[in-house]
Design a protein that fits this description.
Order of helices and strands: EHEHEHHEHEEHEHEEHHHEEHH
Helix content: 40-55%
Shape: globular
Number of strands: 11
Mean pLDDT: 89
Number of helices: 12
Distance between the termini: 34 Å
Radius of gyration: 20 Å
Strand content: 15-25%
Strand order of the largest sheet: 3-2-1-4-11-10-5-6-9-7-8
Largest sheet: 11 strands, mixed
Low-confidence stretches: none
Length: 330
Amino acid sequence: MIIALDGMGGDHAPGEIVKGALESLAAFNDIDIHIYGDEQAMAPYLEQHERLKVVHCTERIEAEDEPVRAIRRKKDASMVRMAQAVKDGQVGAGVSAGNTGALMAAGLFIVGRIEGIERPALAQALPTIDGEGFVLLDLGANADAKPSQLGQYALMGSIYAEKVRGIKNPRVGLLNIGSEEGKGNELTKAAYDVLKNLPINFIGNVESRDLLTGAADVVVTDGFTGNMVLKTIEGTASSFFAMLKEVYMTSMKTKVSAALVKSELGGLKNKMDYAEYGGAGLFGLNAPIIKAHGSSNARAIYNAVRQARTMLEYQVSETIRETIRKESTN
């Protein structure tokens, strides 16, 4: 299988992207990688490898570019060329740490939606206290959503949790302000009725305070709420470790204590590290597209490639397509 990388996307491109590609090739002998980008800029980091191909591109999409305009005008941008290769079947999946809006536009307008999917959703595995994690969607592909779209998110999230994360009969929850049926606004009340009639293991409403305790394997919400929850979790984790570091640096006694628990603190930090959870998948497209974190290092790129590889191996897009087709005929 062939996986494409946007070599110029992200804060640490192209160096960390290339390093992540080489790490992925060393780990998986059943994949080839095509990197799209400025060959001269990538040259200092490249190594000869029979399963690595560089596709030279003369343009790149910047973080400040307007997404749709950039996709339409920068035809030779690394992200656009990568998405086109996915659409044309030259590669099986694409990974980018670049402009999120532009990648979503490229996925929607170039790769295309699965027939029957109303709107694609951005989904990511997030950490839990027990280390198992959970999948949250939508993370911002669509600020607003209809009950039927939340139903499709639930179906796609359940398929992903089972196929990629290996969870048998994953528990699917609806993010809400209370656990009781009948809670919430008009969207969540209507969505509850939709989800309970789907062929999934729907466990009802889930409150945000219970997300990190592993209350569900998949949690569904609209993109506006999901994006705020994601950034709250990221910000809380970052602030917590900053405060913890400050406490441990206040005196010689606390510095000694920090030295004694250094490995344990490192393990705790790894539990909350985005780099270990791969990227956010844009679900509902004709082929897998993975959005890696903008500040991705080589390890994060490796995990995003691993994620794309698993989605191809277990034919996640094909399973979503067949499931949506069956639901539409019922």
